[in-house]
Amino acid sequence: MDESMMTLRRLLTVHDEAIIEAGTAWVRETAAVDLAERPVSETRALVAESVRAYAALLLAGDPRPRDAFIERVTTLRSSLRFRISTLLRGFFSFHRALEPILARHSVPDHLAFDILRRVDAACFEAASLTADTYARKLHDVVDDAQRELVRREKLAALGGLVAGVAHEINTPLGVAITAVSLAQDCLQELSDAFEAGALRQRDLRDGLGRAREAAGMALGNLQRAAGLVTGFKQLAVDQSSESRRTLALGAHLHELLASLAPLYRRGPHRVDVDVRADVVATTYPGALAQIVTNLLHNALVHAFPPTNVGTVRLWIDRADDGQVELGCADDGVGIRPELLRRIFEPFFTTARGSGGSGLGLHIVHNLVTDLLCGTIRAESEPGRGARFTVRFPADAGA
Ligand SMILES: Nc1ncnc2c1ncn2[C@@H]1O[C@H](COP(=O)(O)OP(=O)(O)OP(=O)(O)O)[C@@H](O)[C@H]1O
Ligand SMILES: [Mg+2]
Asked: What range(s) does the Histidine kinase domain occupy (predicted)?
């Protein structure tokens, strides 16, 4: 041990109480947060620990007490609410307290200077380590909070969805029940008249007609309820269990469309595929298939009135920012602005009467944002078609 460190050791042995006392007073006076409410003993214990950490490092070359101290002060939950400057003041306090003691005990200038220089170097290192550790831990807290928020938001969305499903399914089931009981009444009337030998041919024809109508109504509504359940099941598919694959997207889109031919081959409309860039991506083929199917199906179902013949264009491209772009556009009737705002909402449909559940685009939206980690945009001007643009990273969900 050289002369300055021997001097420091002597001073610490004799005056450590005074150093800790002076350091504590300085920290409490100058802290950026109000320490008046905290007990002095708490500040004092922390200053004492930092002095011991300096002693171990400077006199014995042992950084462990310092590292343990940093770990501890940045782990206290309340210390994450402290200003970082207050934490760091604990380290600076050693220099502040030591300086007058060096002067008072007439330590020769060159030794005092060397001691303070080495204390400062140790202080600088400790301050950097503390700031890094503090920032990292604060970051973890923010990350946790963010995850928790997302989880809660998803739960709330799920709650709303379940309520929506119950409500949506209730309506067709209610209608079906009414219709079936109507049919039952008709059949009962017929059977009563028959038993009484009073069944006229006209009553029979009327009765059977009404019963058939009611049965038809029940069937339609039950089919609608069944459709909702199917849509809801798709929504609940465990997305994390789907496997990722590396695909050449252009070729994949062509294959996909060939398999979807039954959707459009017999109809009058044209479906074109445009591979603008040869993009290879590691992604979820099941989700892509579902997205393309829903977008294409929507265009074929909603875009063209019965007498119009239209074109649906699908494309794959690489966007300026390097993401994959998958698009679907039609030249049909388009979507009015007040509806465009709502198309991704669950159960929003303009085709309720003809079997639409309003889950199609909601499912697409979920797959794009949750699974592909991407975005989807819908643009439309009434009378000028609708255009859906999906963008996602080429290594989606990695
Ligand atoms: N290409 C399009 N052209 C015009 N309107 C569209 C188009 N795509 C979607 N829409 C509108 O958006 C609404 C919501 O679409 P979404 O796919 O969510 O439900 P849906 O098609 O009505 O029912 P589902 O998909 O469950 O059968 C549709 O009812 C329709 O009004
Ligand atoms: Mg749809």
From this structure: 164-396
Q: Pick the closest to residue 11 from 45, 68, 54, 49 (CA basis).
A: 54
> Where is 130: in which H helix or E strand?
helix 109-195
Give nearest CA residue, ligand 1 atom 25. 360
Q: Ligand 1 in contact with 380 (CB < 6 A)?
A: no
The answer as to CATH 1.10.490 being correct for domain 3-146 is yes
Q: What is the atom index within ligand 1 of the atom nearest the CA of 385?
A: 3
Map out the domains of the chain as residue ranges: 3-146, 162-240, 243-392
pTM: 0.57
Pairing of strands 386-392, 270-275: unpaired
385 touches ligand 1 (CB under 6 Å): no
- Contacts made by residues 238-242, CB under 8 angstroms, sequence distance 24+: 239/284, 239/287, 239/366, 239/367, 239/370, 239/371, 242/284, 242/286, 242/287, 242/371
Fold of 243-392: Heat Shock Protein 90 (3.30.565)
State pLDDT tens for residues 290-347: 899 999 999 999 999 988 899 999 999 999 888 999 999 999 999 999 999 999 988 8
